[in-house]
Amino acid sequence: IDNDQVKALLTMEDCIRVQEEAFKELGTGDAVHRPRIDVYAPCERDDGYYRWGSMEGASKALGIFAIRMKSDIVHWPRNAQGGWTEEKYCVRPGTYCGLVFLFSTRNGEPLAIINDGQLQHMRVGGGAGLGAKYLARADSRVVGMLGSGGMARTYLTAFCAVRPIKRVKVYSPTPEHREAFAKEMSRELGIEVEPVDSAREAVRGVDVVSTCTDAMRPTIQGEWLEPGMHVANLGPAEIGEDAYRRFDVKIRQGVGGWSPREPIERVEMERGMSPVAYIAGQEEEVARIPKRDRELRGFGGDFPHFTDLVSGRAKGRTSEREITFYHNIGNQGLQFAAVGGWVYERAKGLGVGRELPTEWFLQDIRD
Q1: What angle, 0 to 180 degrees and rounded to 10, lies between the N-to-C axes of helices 175-189 and 150-162?
Q2: What does the alpha-carbon distance between residue 45 and residue 39 come to, in Å, rounded to a whole number?
Q3: Beta strands in 147-186 (DSSP E)
Q4: d(CA 358, CA 83)
Q5: 192-195 and 167-171 as β-strands: parallel, antiparallel, unpaired?
Q6: In whole angstroms, what is the distance from residue 317 CA to residue 116 CA?
Q7: Which residues are registered as beta bridge partners of 195?
């Protein structure tokens, strides 16, 4: 199932719904999620690394297991203005390799291979929308967006699916990018989208704040946050400690990483943009991969999960003036099982996609 077919089959409303149902299964023990683990190996670039990433999840109700796999060359450029980002590609800049494999948990059958691009953008945006559904004020109408890429598009679509959004301010350091985003999303969603000249202006006076960037440093200052706001992030480095101190309610989507009880050679937690990294290379090569800034919370956080919120073990918003935060990281493998499973069922029902014989994937040699 390719990206164009996923786009035709999957609505944001369905994307949010199936994730919510799957996340609730985590609370009952009927679903499971394995956080993303990356493997690094030296590559031909003297400023980059090869990175293989995978994440897994399974749902009893869906009867589906998913593994998402991606193969990237990554590097971490800095620009003259002090910006620091993670960039990636496969084969050449502008092309990428990511696949989702689905299997039946009922009989083990391989079910589908799906290009992950559209599914990835939708499941992440849907996660942010789920956070806004539970934590943003019911009358939220104005969104401030930092970032204007593909993820920003699905984040905004998700916010509009759960709240009566009427106006958006968007900032990107590249003027043509924010202007193109404003024109496209205004036309697509039928709302006012205004490009602005600074991150500060994008955040000023809005109800929902979204940071969707590949930045390696915080994008929002705590002093910008106003009573009643709801905040959602994309990457582990976008929210600094000064912003965390302003949040009255903090909920994280799920477990974004894990820590071994004892140090393991070649394994590091939160290196680069990786929750867990297995790293090959000589000392001078490994030094290319950015270390976690200890001032940042990164992938984790000592605050409740979404399952705590929906089960009543944790409180959500209790007043119109509280500042809420949804840490939109974690549960990735289960997200791919839920959203990928929905796409697979729709594709089968409508006869969409290229059929591959199951026999190609079976063998009579026991491993």
Answers
A1: 30
A2: 17
A3: 167-171
A4: 48
A5: parallel
A6: 33
A7: 170
In degrees, to the nearest 5, what angle opens at C-alpha 55 toward C-alphas 117 and 345? 60
CA 219 to chain centre: 17
Instruction: Determine the straight-line distance between the first and last CA of the chain, rounded to whole angstroms.
Output: 28
Question: Could you read off the pLDDT of 234-293 as tens digits, one per residue?
Answer: 988 899 999 999 999 999 998 666 665 565 778 888 888 888 888 999 999 999 998 877
Task: Supply 219's token pair.
Answer: 């994008």
Q: How confident is the model at residue 259, as a pLDDT?
A: 60
Nearest partner of 339 among 4, 13, 32, 60, judged by Cα: 13
Cα–Cα distance measured from residue 108 to residue 63, given in angstroms and rounded to the nearest whole number: 10
For residue 27, report the phi and psi dihedrals to the nearest 5 degrees: -70, -25
Residues 6+ apart with CB under 8 A from 151: 121, 124, 125, 212, 234
Overall pTM surpassing 0.85 (yes/no): yes
Of residues 191, 230, 186, 189, the one with CA closest to residue 211: 230
What is the spatial distance between Cα 57 and Cα 67, in angstroms, rounded to a whole number? 7
Query: What is the DSSP code (8-state) at residue 94?
Result: T
Q: By C-alpha distance, which of 278, 254, 251, 284 is closest to 266?
A: 278
